[in-house]
Amino acid sequence: MRKDIFTVFVEKKPNFNLESENLLRDFKHLLRIDDLKDVRVINRYDIEGINESEYKEIKNSILSESNIDKVYDGDLKFGGRRAFSVEYVPGQYDQRADSAAQCIQIITQKEMPKVKSS
């Protein structure tokens, strides 16, 4: 991880993680993965063009909602679990990243940062 890029992971807390619950149900019933016990959906944001104080401000105001989200900084450990990542290909429009970048620019009143999400 480069020093000038901030990485944050955001996951819905239990009772708010409807996407995870729906994916678990779909994987079990449609793909017949009966042994599957849990599915977690964690959104990753890589942000370039902000400083550390701006990062601390926006990670809990723009990228997450403190009452319904868990926030993890830096590298995320999976403890032996299987994981895969889904992200847009270069040139494909990423609405989540674009919206985050626009909100960050409004808060910081600076040039729009580069944001990637997955």
Structure description:
This protein is α+β, with helices and mostly antiparallel strands. The chain has one domain. It is 29% helix and 20% strand. It has 3 helices and 4 strands. It is elongated. The mean pLDDT is 92.
Key terms:
118 residues; alpha+beta; 4 strands
**What topology, given as strand order, has the largest sheet?**
3-1-2-4
Q: What is the number of beta strands?
A: 4
**What is the count of distinct domains?**
1
Number of helical stretches of at least 4 residues: 3
Question: What is the helix/strand order?
Answer: EHEHEHE
Distance between the termini: 16 Å
Low-pLDDT segments, ≥5 res: none
Average pLDDT works out at: 92
Radius of gyration, in angstroms, nearest whole number = 16 Å
Structural class assignment = alpha+beta
Estimate percent helicity: 25-40%
Report the principal-axis shape: elongated
Query: In percent terms, what proportion of residues is strand?
Result: 15-25%
Please outline the major beta sheet: 4 strands, antiparallel
